[in-house]
Amino acid sequence: MLLLSLTVFWGCTDPTTLGSDLLDEDAAQLEIIDSFTIEASTIPGERVITYSPFTALQGYMVNNLQDPVFGSSRATTHLQARLEFTRPNFSDAEPDSLVLVLAYDTAGFYGNLDEPFTLDVHRASEFLDQNDNFFSDTTVTFDPSPIGSVTITPANIDTVTFVDYLQGEPDTQQQVTLRIPLDLMLAQELINLDTTTYESDTSFIRAFNGLTLRAPNPTQSSISFDMFSQQSGMYLYYKRDTLFRQFRFTFSNFSTKFVTFEHDYTGTPIEPYLQSPEPSNDSILFAQGMQGVNVSFRFPTLSNLNNVILNRAELVVHSTVLGIDDPANFNPAEQLIFYRRSDDGELTAIDDVQLASDDLADKFGGQPEASPTGEGVLYRFTLSTHFQDVIDGLADDEIILSAFPRPERASRIVLTNPSQGPERIRLSLTVTNLE
């Protein structure tokens, strides 16, 4: 028994022979393939939903953006004001002021933030139904005369000091918010509304359609606001019974809020690429947030793979800087993702993005890295799940690249697509061959 035990012990602890035939077989089956045909072209932007009863944005853009490469873009935000949980008592009230307060969403700032930026506030002229879906190409009418306006320098935003009357006693506070005085005539109009108007949200939003935020002057910057902040709202200051008081109209979860986008590529380097009737393999590619242009990638030979299990798929693309560009102000997009076209034709994030939603940087990639060539940046993507579906015939071979999140970012990128060399677009698959 002792001799048998020693024999088993020494036999089972030899690391160089145990299962070596199986390891050699697995290694022989593993293969790296990177010689795929890749077709890439710039395609027109497509609308994106910016509000539904189940969808809300984290940041709401406003801009009149003039980009040396991407031309003119405009983001306009529309807001529906609602009542707080308490109902106001404006009987015998005298209006003091009406102030629109907007908390900044600095993550959505983009471009040259050192130049002056003017923001106008208009009255919406039509009812915004909270049960409807609103897309980025939705048109909304508004009064052309602004009821408020302010000019800021986005790079220099700071705390503002104001008096708060929420507790009944004046309290001096400071917040990093934008405060825009609105027309006092609107304050008087809100006070004069029949008391029945304030008995429900439904009555109030029928009487007051809401606000439109618009940038009247062309700039090279884009700003954004957090409408869900506890500070954001329309504040009516008034005097009643010799005391100053305030009431906040909110932009709550139940408030209709959405952004519309306009783009004009006339005379830009992008225009010739959009005039081609059929997608081609472009040497330069353009992708932009908002409702801007995207990049279509096709892999026509990918479906030729048979009897393989895809262990890993990595796609690498490189940026370039055109001579007319201004890289000091227009930084490379901080996050790019891929979309696929759903059965109803809408763009939806590919499975690799959805599975990595809690950690895009580590699990999916798509963030700028220093390029080994020393020029521009590169983006690296892990696309294993989607490409396995393409190989299995469960998904189309087209994927669409765009800045993320599209309706909340004005950022963009220019990519290069040479036929060969270190900056060529490269797809590398690590597969297990089952044959």
Task: Compose a concise summary of this entry.
The protein is mainly beta and 435 residues long.
Task: Tell me about this structure.
The strands form 5 sheets. Strands 4, 5, 6, 7, 8, 10, 13, 14, 15, 16, 17 and 18 form a 12-stranded antiparallel beta sheet that branches. Strands 1, 19, 21, 24, 25, 27 and 28 form a 7-stranded antiparallel beta sheet that branches. This protein has 2 domains: 27-46 and 270-433, Jelly Rolls (Sandwich), CATH 2.60.120; 50-263, no CATH class. With 435 residues, it is mostly beta strands. A hairpin with a 2-residue loop joins strand 16 and strand 17. The chain has helices spanning 2-12, 20-29, 184-192, 201-207, 271-274, 351-355, 360-363, 384-391; strands at 30-33, 39-43, 49-51, 60-67, 71-79, 94-104, 110-111, 117-123, 134-135, 148-152, 160-164, 171-175, 177-182, 211-214, 221-226, 233-240, 243-249, 257-264, 284-288, 294-298, 308-319, 336-341, 347-349, 369-370, 377-382, 398-403, 412-416, 426-433. It is 13% helix and 37% strand.
Radius of gyration: 28 Å
Mean pLDDT: 88
Question: How many separate domains make up the residues?
Answer: 2
Uncertain ranges = 1-23
Major beta sheet summary: 12 strands, antiparallel
Number of DSSP strands? 28
- How many angstroms separate the termini? 45 Å
Structural class: mainly beta
Form type: elongated
Q: Please give the share of residues in helix.
A: 10-25%
Tell me what portion of residues adopts beta-strand conformation: 35-45%
Number of helices: 8
